[in-house]
Amino acid sequence: MTKILLTGANGGVGRRLRRLLPAFYPNLRLSDLTPPDDLQPHEEFVAADLADLAQVEAAVAGVDGIIHLGGLSTEYDWADILQSNIIGAYNLFEAARKHNVRRVVFPSSNQAVGFYPRHRRLGTDVTVRPSSRYGLSKAFGEAVAALYADKHGLRTLCIRIGRVHDLPEDERRLALWISPRDFVQLIRIGLEHPDIHFDLVYGLSSNDRSWYDNTRAYELGYSPEDRAEDHREHAMAEQAKLVRNPLADRFMGGRLCTVEYSGDLERSGT
Ligand SMILES: NC(=O)c1ccc[n+]([C@@H]2O[C@H](COP(=O)([O-])OP(=O)(O)OC[C@H]3O[C@@H](n4cnc5c(N)ncnc54)[C@H](O)[C@@H]3O)[C@@H](O)[C@H]2O)c1
């Protein structure tokens, strides 16, 4: 792998990855709507709106692999999700095809399966149950990744991220957390592992409370270095500051399941 594009480079995860990725991919191009304030002289940046195919093609041209962090990362109006996450994901894969990019890593989200109740243990072969329009857009991105792998030979890895952060921020994140360095390990599998065709894994560190069966990640050689439970005290201290929401606590997607909720609790997520 020579040249890698990181979209969404100005976001929370992007800023963390800018520090960690150059050790493995020194030839890194960054893209986002606007450049990071602290862009370094050695960093290459190409501004691109994901909703504009020509701009995305300009960002993609000449790279071998893409880590596609760009897009809206929580619930928004349909018009916004449509532009950045639906049209944006399609444009990204289409630009990759046109420019002979070999691999795309697509960070999906546990919100694609957010309406499953927390007593379930999910593999990657379950039907999607999105928590929100955001979760729906991630399910769409996973499907685009499958289409471009099967129809056009792109190698794609979708990572259903729980929560990338320095520490697990509350009780729910003890199930969902992935450290930035473990996330980089999964990204490297996506960009380098010879067996990747279209693959789907969960983006989690080694978490005792995980709701997911991440067998495929381990088959691909994933060996997480971090464990959410090691930060239990911090997470529970943060949790104590929050007001409990019984509806959010019932589903894997948490709070995003409650946004605009008008469902039937007897039936949701069953
Ligand atoms: N943070 C997490 O724990 C987490 C969990 C699950 C999934 N993810 C996914 O990982 C990715 C990165 O997450 P994040 O927390 O850094 O999100 P973020 O919101 O901090 O960053 C996303 C970046 O995408 C850019 N963006 C939005 N719309 C765009 C558009 N139309 N064109 C170009 N750029 C656009 C934004 O400017 C922003 O810098 C997202 O796709 C998110 O859905 C993150």
Automatic annotation (TrEMBL):
The NAD-dependent epimerase/dehydratase domain, residue ranges: 4-163
Gene Ontology MF annotations: uronate dehydrogenase activity
One Pfam short name: Epimerase
Superkingdom, taxonomy of origin: Bacteria
Keywords: NAD, Oxidoreductase
Enzyme Commission numbers on file: 1.1.1.203
Top-level enzyme category: oxidoreductase
PANTHER family, per database record: 4-EPIMERASE, PUTATIVE (AFU_ORTHOLOGUE AFUA_7G00360)-RELATED, NUCLEOSIDE-DIPHOSPHATE-SUGAR EPIMERASE
Family to which this protein belongs: Belongs to the NAD(P)-dependent epimerase/dehydratase family.
Annotated protein name in UniProt: Uronate dehydrogenase
Organism name: Nitrospirillum iridis
